Recover the amino acids of this structure.
């Protein structure tokens, strides 16, 4: 079952993010990795900045979470994580498909350039990698991330994305 998360879900969201993010250790640049991957303070900040988390649950247990953030012209998918023991069971697919249906316009997703499994997952769902130039522009426009993260990330766009700078 997919439901919008509430404040009571915060501890479980935090747990799932840090459990699932272990997959990035040794993959993303060492200077971008830290323990925990996302602190409670950073998670609170993300929620305060408008990231709305949704969860997929079975038998009362949250198996995965994914956030969306409305940026006006686009919706961002933020912080998509599935418990390590629940990977490859369709949890992420169900969440992504649902969030795309409730997003009013194009969807953009940023992820680490070396997270090949994440990129392949989004491509399997119809997202396409954007050019380096467009990626840099969009990350500066819609995300608040350090420059080093911009350098080491990619952006994928839903099929309805049209580059507004291209004729």
């Amino acid at each position: 079952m997919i439901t919008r998360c509430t404040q009571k879900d915060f501890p479980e969201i935090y747990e799932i993010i840090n459990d699932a993010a272990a997959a990035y250790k040794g993959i993303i640049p060492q200077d971008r990795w830290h323990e925990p991957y996302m602190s409670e303070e950073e998670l609170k900040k993300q929620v305060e900045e408008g990231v709305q988390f949704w969860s997929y649950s079975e038998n009362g247990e949250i198996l995965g979470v994914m956030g969306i953030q409305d940026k006006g012209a686009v919706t961002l998918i933020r912080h998509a994580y599935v418990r390590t023991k629940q990977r490859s069971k369709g949890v992420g697919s169900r969440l992504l498909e649902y969030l795309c249906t409730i997003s009013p316009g194009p969807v953009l997703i940023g992820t680490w350039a070396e997270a090949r499994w994440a990129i392949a997952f989004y491509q399997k769902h119809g997202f396409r990698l954007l050019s380096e130039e467009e990626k840099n522009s969009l990350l500066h426009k819609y995300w608040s991330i350090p420059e080093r993260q911009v350098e080491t990330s990619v952006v994928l766009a839903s099929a309805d994305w049209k580059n507004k700078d291209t004729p």
About this structure: Helices lie at 10-20, 40-48, 91-102, 116-124, 132-142, 147-151. Residues 5 and 100 are 17 Å apart (CA to CA).
